[in-house]
Specification:
InterPro entries: Phenazine_PhzF-like. By secondary structure, the protein is of the alpha+beta class. The protein contains three helices and eleven strands; from the N terminus they run E-E-E-H-E-E-E-E-H-E-E-E-E-H.
């Protein structure tokens, strides 16, 4: 979807590892997974987190809350990061297949509802969950943010 997210790193304000603020090209977001994993991996790779053990937990302070991230290393290099979102998954609302199709620039026939209806969920940043008819529909999907 060509969705750009950029993380800015600051000294911690509440005694944790770092404060992190995440932005898209148009706004700040309270939380996003990929920028957190990338930021933790990069900071560990360049030595900004000090000595990293075989399995080390760090904590980022963010608008959505505290984000614990586990970093694992092998041969003195980070190889793996995993985070726990600051909030549990919550279902915000169910949306119609028509609305999901519009949001993804697809036809309503390409949105399946047999297993579950399309819905907006969140772990700090809302996202649309929808089952698509096939891989070709996934490849054609383009976000239509204005429709959301």
């Amino acid at each position: 979807f060509n969705y750009s997210e950029t993380a800015f790193v600051f000294p911690a304000e509440r005694g944790h590892t770092r404060k992190v603020r995440i932005f898209t090209p148009t706004t700040e977001v309270p939380f996003a997974g990929h920028p957190n994993v990338g930021t933790a991996f990069t900071l560990a790779s360049i030595g900004e987190l000090g000595e990293i053990g075989e399995c080390t937990e760090i904590v980022f302070e963010e608008e959505a809350g505290l984000v614990p991230i586990t970093i694992r290393k092998k041969a003195e290099k980070p190889i793996w990061c995993e985070l726990r979102a600051p909030a549990p998954v919550s279902i915000r609302r169910v949306v119609s297949a028509e609305k999901a199709a519009q949001a993804l620039s697809l036809t309503v026939e390409e949105i399946l509802t047999d297993n579950h209806r399309p819905q907006v969920a969140s772990v700090g940043l809302p996202f649309l969950i929808a089952e698509l008819r096939d891989r070709a529909a996934l490849e054609r999907a383009q976000p239509n943010v204005a429709s959301l």
